[in-house]
Amino acid sequence: MTAMLEVSELRSAGIDTVIVAGVDMYGKLFGKRMPVRSFERIVGEGLHVCTCVYAWDFDQDLEELKVEFAGAHTGWQDFRLLPDLATLRRAAWLDATAICLADSIDEDSGEPLPVAPRTILRRQVLALNAQELNAYTATELEFHLYRGTPDELRRSGYRDLEPTTLARSDYAIGAGNAMEPFFRKVRNALEESGIAVEVAQAEYGLGQWEINLEYAEAIETADRHVLFKSAVSDLARANGMTATFMPRPLTDGMGSSCHVHASVRGDDGSTPFYDADADRTASASLRHAVAGVLDRVSDLMLFYAPTVNSMRRIISHDFAGNGLTWGFDNRTTTCRLITGGPDANRLEMRLPGADVNPYLASAAVLGSMRDGMSRRIDPGPPCRGDGYAEPHGELPVTLGDAAEKLEQSLFAATTFDKEVVGHYATVARNEWMQFLRATSDWDRDRYFETI
Question: N or C terminus: which one in the chain shows less Cβ crowding within 10 Å?
Fold first, then answer.
């Protein structure tokens, strides 16, 4: 069964429905589905979609969030979703369905929308291409899996959650065997959809799991990431369960990460991050790249930690790094280096959680790597012990702080465009204010009788 499809192959492949999907600010898919006949008709022109998808918050509220890009002041104009036919593939977790990811295009200019995540990442990839370098990435995505459908858990207020493992089961084959009927469906659906699985395992947290996808070019990796999340969520629901990609779904539980691996290769096939004569084969370019990532991490924290819940994982020290630290194969650092061979040498950015938008996080890593390599800066000595043993530079610890750092950053404005920076900072500030206005169970438990 072929995963990747040509338009002319859809009917013969047994496809009767095509989903055309863009990616919103939060890394979620949006779009429309249609019969093959309709897809054949719109494939060159695209679909008209309201700009509200880049102008509302997580709950699709249109009242609180105010951005320059779109709103009542623009008449809630349309943009176009233009299918990227290189992404047309079987969505094997759905019956007789194909999915095609699309770029978001301005109706008037015909140019990519600056605020669209796919546009933001593509610009960083093209900037490296201009230096005869190609970006490769991988995202290691963890998630929690609970019994009960999303509707059932929502009706219960997400109380008394029943995890799919009741004991810590990191690397445990037995726990994996118990859930294999489900995860076999997941792996097979991903493989049949052209989303290549590398390994899967049970994780440390109760009900926590991890599936790693193969290394690929940066945009392909981000595309696979969002399709992976959709497939896992859909299959969990179909099997009476709920997958959550919250970085920290429970106060006392283990956080879920999304470590971002990144490297570059030359147009001529060279591997700039490898030097056989260097310490642990880490070339000067790799060290410069690490220094760039660490030097810009505070400015770009919002791209690594986009929600209030993101910060709960980072300050918990759940293998999320600590400040401006790096080391060889050291999981207590923010930037971990994996070395040993020309194709293996890469950096791993460990700050992002499972809620991250893969296009934005990857763009942040690649833009920072390029900056570090161009300035030829040095990261200093590697951390050789516990990266948490002492402070190593302060990072933003609230969503509000992260928004301010992004908006005030000259590097962010010049690397990602002032309009993009202002848009995402505004979105984050709105989310932070929504949080500050809300009274939670924590407030009542702590203050109701005691204050």
Answer: C
